[in-house]
Specification:
GO molecular function: acyl-CoA dehydrogenase activity; flavin adenine dinucleotide binding
Organism: Oidiodendron maius (strain Zn)
CATH superfamily of the largest domain: Butyryl-CoA Dehydrogenase, subunit A, domain 3
Distance between the termini: 62 Å
Pfam families: Acyl-CoA_dh_1, Acyl-CoA_dh_M, Acyl-CoA_dh_N
Strand order of the largest sheet: 2-3-7-6
CATH architecture of the largest domain: Up-down Bundle
Number of domains: 3
Family: Belongs to the acyl-CoA dehydrogenase family.
Cofactor: FAD
Structural class: alpha+beta
CATH class of the largest domain: Mainly Alpha
Radius of gyration: 25 Å
């Protein structure tokens, strides 16, 4: 049997297998082995270590241990595209296959330094920063000796329209001074979080609204930053990283902490968000596969026989299983297409396929996981399985990196731009029909 026929490659379509390099095949297999043997069995232990008194906002000892194992095995930073010198050499398409496997455990991505927001921040720093900035800020992230956060969302504006972001960045002498409120940057309570990449408004009166904002690196120990609280997501605090709410009051950072230059934030943001959206989607497909497997196990559980039948023997549940299989497989194709498009044509050209993925996959995942919870009955809503946490993550991704309604608007707007060419094509159909009717002596009819 070929290696490509093994469990690690079971769900990968033939056209993707044909594009996998020997390096990618090796990495996919190693990621699969690591998740199956190191991560999944350790889920209860990881939870127990977080729950220890006084340790909730400290990275678990087991996480440090697994990260070192993954690093030694060459599984660190797999997401970084091959056109970066720091990359391990995988394309977006190849990494997508790894990301799906990582998604089987919520935190498995972190063991391999492939977790959000690190992935986006590392790629951002690798793509846009100076050599000096890379040495100071990027290298510790690549080495796994520090973590970072992304500070963009604000409570006082509609952040789905990022041009409204109002946190002020003012230049004073040799410093930038920052004032404003932010949401969702990872918690400062975890001391491994060393800096934020903050997006703020540096030129509010610029007639070009896309040139009003800048990005700066803000060390977490800078005076003036106050963490108001941790924000729970559907009741989960996501310790030990969490989602903080912050106030920036006269926070001063050196001018050298600007990324790319003043007014370049949107250029940077678009370069950052494309790949990250794909990573989220592939991990969600991995979560769906895990949830689906749990549902299959439930369907054949001999202890659960309502009305004398296994749960999987009811026609409605057989149809449920079939529908879930179809939806997971079609979603995977959409995301793999987006990853391949990015590889061939670049992130900008792939924005339509990226938007498709961002719309379809989180919605699909919430629906699939919800059905799996239904098959489990009351236990499906409790810590008896990972299903509630999976569902919460999927629901979160519908909003993370931009709400799906904004992406629908983009897709719909782009499609409407194509309407005129179809109108022209239909006018040509009508012209040819009229000519043919006259030639054949038939009555010409029109509904125009």
């Amino acid at each position: 049997m070929s290696q490509l026929d093994g469990p690690a490659f079971h769900r990968i379509p033939p056209w993707v297998k044909a594009k996998l390099s020997p390096t990618a095949i090796e990495k996919i297999q190693k990621v699969h082995n690591f998740v199956e043997t190191e991560c999944i069995p350790a889920e209860p232990i990881m939870k127990a270590q977080i729950a220890e008194v006084g340790k909730r906002w400290t990275t678990q000892p087991l996480m440090h241990e697994l990260r070192q194992k993954a690093k030694t095995a060459g599984l660190f930073n797999l997401f970084l595209p091959s056109h970066f010198k720091e990359s391990p050499g995988l394309t977006n398409l190849e990494y997508s296959c790894c990301a799906e496997i990582m998604g089987r455990v919520y935190w498995a991505q972190q063991t391999m330094n492939c977790h959000a927001p690190e992935t986006g921040n590392i790629e951002l720093l690798a793509k846009y920063c100076t050599p000096e900035q890379k040495k100071k800020w990027l290298q510790p992230l690549l080495d796994g000796t520090a973590s970072s956060a992304y500070s963009m969302t604000e409570p006082d504006v509609a952040s789905s329209d990022a041009t409204q972001i109002g946190c002020r960045i003012t230049k004073e002498g040799d410093k930038y001074v920052i004032n404003g409120r932010k949401l969702f940057g990872n918690c400062m309570w975890n001391s491994e979080n060393k800096f934020y990449i903050l997006m703020g408004c540096s030129d509010p009166y610029n007639p070009n609204k896309w040139a009003r904002h800048s990005m700066v690196i803000v060390p977490t120990n800078t005076p003036g930053i106050t963490q108001v609280r941790n924000l729970t997501i559907m009741g989960y605090d996501h310790a030990p990283e969490g989602h903080g709410e912050y106030i920036y009051e006269d926070v001063r950072v050196p001018l050298e902490n600007i990324i790319l230059g003043e007014g370049r934030a949107f250029e940077i943001a678009q370069g950052r968000l494309g790949p990250g959206r794909i990573h989220h989607c592939m991990r969600l497909i991995g979560q769906c596969e895990r949830a689906y497997e749990l549902a299959l196990v439930r369907c054949i559980d001999p202890r659960k026989t309502p009305r004398g039948k296994l749960i999987g023997q009811f026609d409605s549940n057989i149809e449920r299983i079939a529908q879930m299989r179809l939806e997971i497989d079609q979603a995977r194709l959409v995301v793999l297409n987006a990853a391949d498009t990015m590889d061939i044509h670049g992130n900008k050209a792939g924005r339509y396929a990226i938007a498709q993925s961002k719309i379809l996959v989180p919605n699909m995942a919430t629906r699939i996981i919800d059905e799996c919870m239904q098959l489990y009955g009351g236990q499906g809503l409790t810590q008896h399985t990972q299903l509630p946490e999976m569902w919460t993550y999927a629901r979160f991704v519908r909003i993370a990196d931009g709400p799906d309604s904004a992406h629908r608007h983009q897709v719909g707007r782009d499609e409407l731009k194509t309407a005129e060419k179809y109108a022209k094509r239909n006018r040509e159909y009508q012209r040819r029909y009229k000519a043919l009717a006259e030639k054949m002596g038939q009555k010409y009819e029109t509904f125009e």
